[in-house]
Amino acid sequence: MKDLMKKIQAQALNSQPCYLVALIESEGSTPRTSGAYMLVGEKGLLYGTIGGGGMEYAAQQLAQQRLQNGGGSFVKTFDLSPAAGMACGGSCQVQFCYLPVGEETGDLAEEALSAMKQRAPWWFLLPLGE
Q: Which of 32, 55, 72, 97 could pair with 36 in a Cys bridge, judged by C-beta atoms 3.0 to 4.6 Å apart?
């Protein structure tokens, strides 16, 4: 998780907005459980995984599209059933936390790193949005 926060800081310092994409709820068979994270920039995956396969690819594409259109945090539910062309059979909710360019994003990552060092919760710092 520390590497993830350092990557977020680097993105902020390099004036590159990104999304922290988190699997927040899963039901039935899914590739990963709640708590999986990935970081997505304008050119694609920067760090981590939320399970791979079609769902992760779709989440990356969605994050990239939203970055091109100005960002904004949101939640999306993914159907992983065979009817949706997926093999797992369950469903999951994914939180897309928009991290804009600027000092605030760098500060957020720094605060999260500090909280981690103290073994304190850090996720409450994230912009949960819409």
A: 32
Report the candidate in 79, 66, 69, 86 with the shortest Cα–Cα distance to residue 20: 66
Q: Could you tell me the residue range of the domain that residue 74 belongs to?
A: 2-125
Using alpha carbons, select from 35, 33, 48 the residue that is nearest to residue 91: 33
Nearest Cα to Cα of residue 4 among 32, 44, 36: 36
Strand, coil or helix: what is 44? Answer: strand
pTM of the model: 0.82
Instruction: Decide the pairing of beta strands 91-99 and 74-79.
Output: antiparallel
Does 130 fall in a domain?
no
Q: Quick check: 7 pLDDT over 70?
A: yes
Distance in angstroms (rounded) separating the CA atoms of residues 68 and 91? 27
- Distance (Å, rounded) from C-alpha 11 to C-alpha 110? 13
